[in-house]
Design goal:
0% strand, mainly alpha, Amino acid/polyamine transporter I
């Protein structure tokens, strides 16, 4: 029973951390502008997320090492530093977008400018990291994330046409060259395959003291959790396609329309709650993931379950990250533009994060007989190839897509 509860809570963690401002904004923009035609990108991203999350969990459960620790040991300081630079810079941008999204959700609820909420929001995130144990973040915040199920309910309420949705799950080309179409496709994948998720998941497996006995649980968490998260992202796209057709979303004030046009005033509050909880969970995960990566690579004491004075460099690092991330909010940076840029740049650095993971998953010194087989390697190669293609086109598409 205890293991079943652990699995259930792990699934909630996946659901709660999946739907944040990056996924919500990119899915809404895709649905409003292109109907169901980009559903296939959400499906592709979800399949990739299932595979990569399972690998990250399996690596830590078997080797009793985190990805950050093994990355420094296996590839040396230069490669580790390059990964930290690429993943760190883009993750700070994503963190800035999440903190801004959190402040915007608070503005939508109170009417007070999001810039004035920057410092209180940053303090809240820091306080949770300072006072909370890992279980608080893993279970408490993720449990509150169940409010995002309102998007799934809304998708059923709008009664979308089944054949059109099925057609959207098949990859298609726009009728004429359209940089916006491909930019949103790249942004959706960037929002889904954020490298911080895998580093956080790997570190969480060690914090929760996973062993080989948890391999079956890991597969369930990765498959069911990420699949359900992908369904929620798809639901956002579907609802936007039905209630906001041919609308280009360029102002965050328009975001609540996706649920208010289905549930009325209650829908606005459901959207605000979903955005607030999703951004809070993502901000905590991003901050911890980068702090974990640095601490593990440089052999600091680390862990949310340690007292702050027992891991001072760990605490100073996440404090500095929150302080830098909130600068975007205080500066009043356009939230939607920051989110789109952060997602595109995240797609650009995916090869830096995924290529070492693929090599580690084939290293029998860490995994023994649990190393990747031919099927897992084949899928991983496809993911890395996709990530390389994204790295080449993401910035030009950011320009072409406006």
């Amino acid at each position: 029973m205890k293991r079943l509860l652990h699995v259930a809570l792990g699934i909630l963690t996946s659901v709660g951390g999946f739907l944040e401002i990056g996924s919500i904004v990119t899915a809404m923009q895709a649905g409003a502008e292109f109907g169901f035609r980009l559903l296939w990108v959400v499906a592709l991203g979800t399949l990739c997320a299932i595979s990569l999350t399972e690998m990250a969990g399996r690596f830590s459960a078997v080797s009793q090492r985190t990805l950050g620790d093994a990355l420094r040991e296996r590839f040396g300081a230069r490669v580790f530093g390059l990964v930290v630079l690429g993943v760190g810079v883009t993750s700070v941008l994503v963190l800035g977008a999440e903190l801004t999204g959190l402040a915007i959700a608070t503005e939508l609820a109170t009417g007070v400018s999001f810039r004035l909420w920057g410092l209180p929001i940053a303090f809240l995130v820091w306080l949770i990291l300072w006072k909370g144990k890992f279980g608080v973040i893993e279970y408490g915040v993720a449990g509150l994330g169940l409010v995002t199920l309102s998007f799934l309910v809304a998708a059923f309420r709008v009664d979308p046409p089944g054949p059109a949705m099925a057609a959207g799950l098949l990859p298609s080309l726009p009728a004429e060259p359209d940089g916006r179409y491909w930019f949103l496709a790249v942004s959706i994948l960037g929002a889904t395959l954020t490298p911080y998720l895998f580093y956080f998941y790997s570190s969480g497996a060690i914090e929760d003291e996973w062993t080989i006995a948890e391999l079956s649980a890991n597969r369930i968490v990765a498959a069911v959790g990420m699949l359900f998260g992908g369904v929620l992202a798809g639901a956002v796209l579907v609802v936007a396609a039905m209630v906001m057709p041919d609308m280009r979303i360029e102002d965050y004030a328009a975001l609540p329309l996706v649920l208010s046009r289905v549930f009325g005033r209650t829908g606005s509050w459901l959207f605000v709650a979903s955005l607030w909880i999703g951004c809070l969970g993502a901000a905590l995960e991003i901050t911890l993931a980068i702090t974990y990566l640095l601490a593990q690579g440089y052999n600091w004491r680390w862990g949310e379950n340690l007292r702050p004075r027992e891991a001072s460099r760990f605490v100073l690092t996440y404090t500095a990250l929150v302080a830098v991330g909130v600068c975007f909010t205080l500066a009043g940076v356009d939230a939607l533009q920051l989110t789109n840029l952060a997602m595109a740049l995240t797609a650009a650095v995916l090869p830096l994060a995924l290529s070492p993971l693929l090599l580690l998953m084939n290293d029998r010194r860490y995994l023994g007989r649990h190393a990747n087989g031919w099927l897992a390697n084949g899928f991983a190669v496809v993911i890395v190839a996709v990530s390389l293609a994204l790295a080449v086109v993401s910035i030009p598409l950011a320009i072409a897509g406006g």
